[in-house]
Structures are given as C-alpha cells and as structure tokens.
C-alpha cells in the first residue's frame, strides 16, 4: 500500500497547511480522534491559516462581486496569492489543492497517493468560488468530495485530511487496520462481528470462530467480493463479476 512506502528522514513529517475563511469550523475535526493523536505523536503537522490575515482591506474582506454580474461573491486572487506565496517561500509543496465541486472525485486511491507526499496546501473554497486565475496559476490539483455543493470547503478539507492522516505510519495503533478498509484493493470491507457469538439466535459465521487463519482469510475475501458485487459493482472489473 502507498502509505507503507512513506519514508521519514530525520524529524521530517508530513505537513498539511489549510487556508480557510472559517478556521473555527476545523477546530473540532482536527483536534479529536485519530487526527489529534497523530498530531500529538508527531506523525503529521496540520496548520490552519485564516485567509483574512492576508487581506490588505481595512475590513479584512477577501471577496468581491463577479465581473459577469452573476449572483454571489467571489474570493479574490490577491489574498490567496499572498498566503500561498508566503507558505511556498518557507518550504516546497508537493501539491496545492483547491476543494471544488467540479474537481476530481476524491477516493481511496487519491488518499493513498497524497499520504506519500511531504507538504500539501489545501485551499478551502467559499462563496461562489475563487477567481479563476487562482485555479489557472496557483493550484496544482482540484478535488471534490462528491457531486453536491457545500457552504464552504472546510468540511471537504477535513475529510481529505482525515483520510490521509489515518494512512500514515504511526497514526493508528494497528496500522494493518487501514489496509483492510473499504476501497483498498477496490473492494468494500467484509462484514465484521464481535462478542457475543450468539445473540437472540443471530449467530456469527462459524468459520470466524474456527481459529483457522487460511479459512478466515478466504471467507473475508469472498464476503468482501460478494458485498462489492451487491453494493458497488462499479468498483469491479468484468473478470471479478
């Protein structure tokens, strides 16, 4: 898997810089659960930047009307360029990502790929979007988390960051857990069970209680394949069907 080949040199760790109009929206998702533990353990560094800090407007405005006359405000290029330029002057970035409804659809393959990067910037979209020149000249990649529109890109940035972080070595107590997640190897994950083995007559499959690793792995693969056929056949090739 991609994340297993990530190489750490000295104290170098992955860094994600998130540029946003609403940094407070990221406080909770970035300071709990696996992400919080990974940050405290020095697995990843996540810095949130308020775009208004890069505005020269006395009211800290970072948006303006569209020249086209279309309804809705547009994020200006100047403060975005200042923010990205300052960050790039301090370190090199593998990718500068813009969260956008018309970007490439985010999936596990992209999460795996991004988990191998060293430094990444995520620019959160807002309002009607950003000045097109930002997309033409400052961004290296555009990512969407689905075919719908959110109020802003903060939740998308949190989702992307979460998906990346849990793949990094040391982020999870059991690193093999991430490798059995849905969409790794283009399959949904198999069904999982825990104690009691018999509840109201609803029983755990006998093979999972057998203690036979080979049979258990075979069952898990077949179950994952069957679940994928039934729920997400689009993930499978004709040979798998």
Question: Can you give a write-up of this model?
Answer:
With 241 residues, the protein is an alpha/beta fold. It folds into 2 domains: 2-165, SPOUT methyltransferase, trefoil knot domain (Alpha/beta knot), CATH 3.40.1280; 180-235, Trp Operon Repressor, Chain A, CATH 1.10.1270. 31% of the residues lie in helices and 19% in strands. The protein contains 8 helices and 9 strands. The chain has helices at residues 27-30, 33-40, 77-90, 108-114, 132-137, 154-165, 176-179, 213-231, and strands at 14-20, 44-50, 63-65, 73-75, 95-105, 119-124, 141-144, 198-199, 202-203. Strand 5, helix 4 and strand 6 form a beta-alpha-beta unit. The two termini are 24 Å apart.
Helix/strand structural class: alpha/beta
CATH topology of the largest domain, which one? Alpha/beta knot
Cα-atom Rg, whole angstroms?
A: 21 Å
Give the neighbour order of strands across the main sheet: 2-1-6-5-7
Largest sheet: 5 strands, parallel
Overall body shape: elongated
Question: What is this structure, in a nutshell?
Answer:
This protein has 241 residues and is an alpha/beta fold.
Q: Which features would summarize this protein structure in a list?
A:
241 residues; alpha/beta; Alpha/beta knot; Trp Operon Repressor, Chain A; five-stranded parallel β-sheet; two-stranded antiparallel ribbon; 8 helices; elongated
Which helices and strands appear, and what pairs or packs with what?
Elements: E1 14-20, H1 27-30, H2 33-40, E2 44-50, E3 63-65, E4 73-75, H3 77-90, E5 95-105, H4 108-114, E6 119-124, H5 132-137, E7 141-144, H6 154-165, H7 176-179, E8 198-199, E9 202-203, H8 213-231
Parallel strand pairs: 1-2, 1-6, 5-6, 5-7
Antiparallel strand pairs: 3-4, 8-9
């Amino acid at each position: 898997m991609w994340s297993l080949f990530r190489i750490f040199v000295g104290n170098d760790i992955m860094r994600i810089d998130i540029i946003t109009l609403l940094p407070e929206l990221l406080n909770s998702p970035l300071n709990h659960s696996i992400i919080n533990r990974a940050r405290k353990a020095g697995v990843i560094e996540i810095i949130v930047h308020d775009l208004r800090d890069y505005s020269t407007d006395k009211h800290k405005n970072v948006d303006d009307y569209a020249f086209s006359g279309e309804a809705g405000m547009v994020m200006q290029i100047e403060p975005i360029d200042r923010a990205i330029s300052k960050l790039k002057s301090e370190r090199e970035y593998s990718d500068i990502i813009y969260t956008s409804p018309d970007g490439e659809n985010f999936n596990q393959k992209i999460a795996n790929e991004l988990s191998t990067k060293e430094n990444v910037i995520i620019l959160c979209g807002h309002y009607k979007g950003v000045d097109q020149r930002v997309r033409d000249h400052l961004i290296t990649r555009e990512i969407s988390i689905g075919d719908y529109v959110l109020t802003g890109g903060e939740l998308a940035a949190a989702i992307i960051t979460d998906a990346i972080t849990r793949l990094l070595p040391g982020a999870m107590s059991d690193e093999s857990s991430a490798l059995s997640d849905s969409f790794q190897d283009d399959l949904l994950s198999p069904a999982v069970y825990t104690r009691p083995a018999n509840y109201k007559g609803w029983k755990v499959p006998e093979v999972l209680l057998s203690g036979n690793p080979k049979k258990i792995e075979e069952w898990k693969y077949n179950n994952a394949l069957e679940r994928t056929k039934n729920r997400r056949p689009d993930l499978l090739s004709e040979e798998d069907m």
